[in-house]
Give the backbone structure.
Amino acid sequence: MEKGRTAGSYVLFVLREGLYRMKTELVGWRGIVLLVIFGYMFLDTVGAVKEGHELMGQGVGALWLVVLFPARMGKLLYLLPFSKKERTRYLGTYSVSYNVFHVLLFLFMGGVACLLSGYSFLLWTRSFVLCTFPFLLLYSGVVVDSMSAAVKRSYPNSGWFFSTRSCWYQKEDPVEGIREDCNTSVARKVTMSAEEKAKAKKQMRFAVATMLCTIIPAFHGCGNYMYASLCERWPWLLYVIAGLAYVSAIIGLFLYWNRISEEMNQKGSAGKEERVCNS
Amino acid sequence: MSTVLDVKIPRMQRDGFALKEIAFSVEAGYLTALLGMNGAGKTTLLSAISGLLPLPEGAEVSIGGYSLTENEKEAKEYMGFVFDDSPFDEGMSPLLTGQMYGPYYRNWDMEKYLTYLERFEIPKKRTIRKLSKGMKMKFQLAFALSHGAKFLIMDEPAASLDPVFRDEFMEVLSEILEEEECGILLSSQLVSELEAKADYTMMLHQGEQMFYDSTENILDKFFLVRGRYELFPYMKSRILGERLSEFSAEGLIRNDGDPVRLDLECVRPTMEDLMYYIKQGVVKKGMV
């Protein structure tokens, strides 16, 4: 086997990157924010013990966690000597490890919070599995998508928020909106061909679809306490919404992966057109 | 002399901007300058060559004899990159970057990498973010050379360096060209500095390849005549374009061997002069 080419070496690589992150990113300002998140989660469990209310801070904690540790690869992904298959495999490995890293860190923080507050870790984990995990799962799709496309789109981080910005230009001319958004600093006279317009519309459809897939997991993950009383009355409701969140997350992941695969095949391949928006 | 890069791009559309009929090659041991004004398409071209943008139908880019479309992995093994905006994680140290990303290259040589870091006086354990701009460039260069790259692609590497560091960087490049026998394709706005160093020059204008030849050949094709404006009408038929000021006039003529009036100063143009006349539409594709 060639050095640095096996699936195991990819895992090793990502683990090393994980360790590197633990070593360098948990100290400094990120470490401080992490402590704040931890404090928030701890108070959340204290509140759940003393006041007997539902956990309210898990989703928000998870949201901050993923925002704190963005994936980083960008151009390098396309500059390193990967074949298309290897690149896709690397992204898959990275995505899984990225998620595992977050989940383990989150579980660890939750465990310590429960230990200190006396809240049941089993209940905490149940809440995590039912409410927060679908959101984390979906976010790993956003991450991989950002990594694979960082070079080609003008948005350094993609995902529905950035992509749907373009949709807000729709009132006048959505295509021109995207055009203005994509053409950053270089002033060039631009006219879009019919093909480019079709691609822009495809991009918009993707943005809307992923946004829809994000709504349930994000709302369920960060705001499930808002309908806790309903769930108390109808316990099955929580499971139904959790199920919907998982389904949405999986569909969202599928959409992201579909686009990533498409882009992987585009890279450097003759006969394939490029995307509309490039950095 | 071996070819390390061979590019043939019939047409490439991107964001309503098109690169048209690009064809050139880079030889081992030579520095090729990629020049052009803002928006000429330099970065688009470099992105396509380095695999950051997909190639259109019919385009062929081969690096070290390997096709970028058919054998991307092997092609990338031969390619090193130095970008103004470093693609590496700025939170890592050069040492860690080498340890983490180096093994992806078949010919990665960690010892060589450490030697280069030492030679370029780059602190191994300081995070890339904390390195000066010049050090970042040299660090990327060290990384590229340590995996045995035979073709180096550089996008505006000296743009934000101070003149002293720029000289030093160019000096390093000259040494590398001799030692490593690799070819370099370097894009820059610093035309006058590159003119003296580049063996070959490729000029882009509005996505079009204006010329590609040895720098000497290109500059030998023209003359600049300077003098009093009243004398210009006598040479009207030969003057391709003019640049007038309050006190003097300058005109571009072809170096076709015909004598020039003795009362006019006749000098070889610089690349900057040629860029000016290209922008004026005086120097056109095929004139070189």
